[in-house]
Amino acid sequence: MSDSELREAQLSGSCPLRVAFSVYRGNPTSGGQGVYTKYLSRELQSLGHHVEVFSGQPYPEVDFSIRLTEVPSLDLYRPDDPFRIPKLREFRNSWDLMEFAIMCTGGFPEPRIFGKRLYSLLSNRRPEFDILHDNQSLSWSILRLQAQGWPVVASIHHPITVDKKLGLDHADGFKEQFGVTRFYGFVRMQTKVANRLDHIITVSDTSARDISREMGIGRNKMRVVPVGVDPTTFRPIPDQARQPGLIVTTASADVPLKGLAVLVEAMQMLVAGGERPIVLKIMGQRRDDSPVQRSVERLGLSPYVEFLGKVTQDEMVRLYSSASVAVVPSLYEGFSLPTIEAMACGAPLVVSDGGALPEVAGADGDCARVVRAGDARALASAVSDLLHGPESAERMAHRAIIRARSRFSWRAAALGTVDRYLEALDGSPQHSAISVDSDFGVVDAKAADL
Q: pTM of this prediction?
């Protein structure tokens, strides 16, 4: 078999690869990393490759055919008991002590300590796998495994330095600024590790540019492989009527990055302007000390804003399908799964221009209204326009369904990922042979500079 024939066989799965896939927290309800783990592993397996997922808590949902190796931690950030104090019997080794100590001093220990546990599991299993795919843990231990001869591909969804900067910008006083700086202490480690890896996947051209700028990683190390949407789950519900005045948004984390404070300010403008009936439903877990919740109460918006907490996928699809408007108000996104999920469900959509959102939704306004990130007045105006123009909103939503289904698939994401695996196994970067489409496909990062 020639080299080209072997490569084609590996891409198609007839010559399967053995993939160790690592993620420090893998549950889909924990955010995009969990969704990425669930669907990418499923599609890699469906191509014929063998995937074993190594995950910390909360554990992921994976297909029954995929082996899941749990990497247990103290689970210090569980939703029902965040920042908990474990019982003495829960401490099993020095890693547990380190994990708890870092949390107690305001840091976020999960990526670092997960890496140590992962190393102990993988260091003696090199013959069982062809490649290690690290889903943004970027711990020192990934470099140790690379030094042992593991080919490594790392996914970086967006530079976490942006989260840190936005957190500092929204911190109230020196104490909060110090807390943000301490919590994001792991960013220094991730930046240093990423710079010593040769094969990186990211999810948009915007992320590639920002990772290069923020983390100093050469564009020649990166390939853009967009993520996908599951059309069997995220689809319009037949005969589902729009609920007048229903506005929905998804926030995987109650942090400044997600722009909820801006959306609440826009809601105040809509209510003050006499917009009735109107209600904002927020899908996602909020913090007990949420500044967004305090703003809702201070502005007298409690009758108009409802925090739903975690919702099932079926509930999410029902809300998108019945919403008059869906909003993604983020100040920055490296891609945005909620955007393509809302589009695939046919929700009339308003997005900010933060990060890659225009790249995903389409900057021309045919599939979504795009407003300046952080501009509450522009956001309120765009929402009002869609509420009062249901016919044009429906036409826009129909175009959004077509864009989501035709441009973003998990099968294409899996093919692009396998191509990146083969580059790592070859030992030298090659131009990708895969092209999803000319507008937003699997892009060679060097060519994207032109």
A: 0.85
